[in-house]
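User: Hey, quick favor. My workstation is busy. Could you predict this chain's structure for me?
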Amino acid sequence: MKLSIKRFLSLFGLIILASFLFLIPIIAQTKIPKANLPVLSTSAGQSNDVNTINIILEEAGIKYDYCDVPDVDLIKSGVGLADRESGPGFHVEVYTDLSKYPKGTPYKTIIFAIGASLKGMGASGLTVEAEEARLKRIVEYCQKNKIYIIAVHVGGSALRGAPGSDNERMIDAVAPFANHIIVTKDSNKDGRFTNIAKAKNIPLTEVDYALDLVNIFKQIFQ
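Assistant: No problem, here it is.
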């Protein structure tokens, strides 16, 4: 009887240990990575989803700068975006707290709202190829200057497509190079972002609805 109890306790202990070890990667996957301010929001593909991201940032109380089509030179200018003004096909908004981050302070994080819109690109005088090239320049600049990249896709299946489509090309231009990928479940039905995250060892956060990002951004920038 004593031997049976010992074996039972040993087996029970192994089960508890195995369960704990099994849970470790799950805990790691659900942990929200941190990022630093100041932050710039922009579009990867010129869809209206960047407006959704900006509204979410406002709801989360995160002060940010925004430009729909910045290039490297403008990003280099830092907070305030060199006092550039909005015009046809070019939009700028500066909401960063200048008392904490004066004009010219380098951005620490860039949020890309991924989603292609031919109408949006056309309004900015861009082709799909030109948008891809712009994104490549920005991503390379971020990597060289240790600027944290957050790739966000909240457009759902409507802003997805077959391999090689405009939307998928925007994903390819940003997501594999991100430091953190955030998507809605409807955007990731086929596991596309899950596969990218696994292949590139990128933290992935999946939410039910876009508005769930309010709490996510609060955690990221707290």
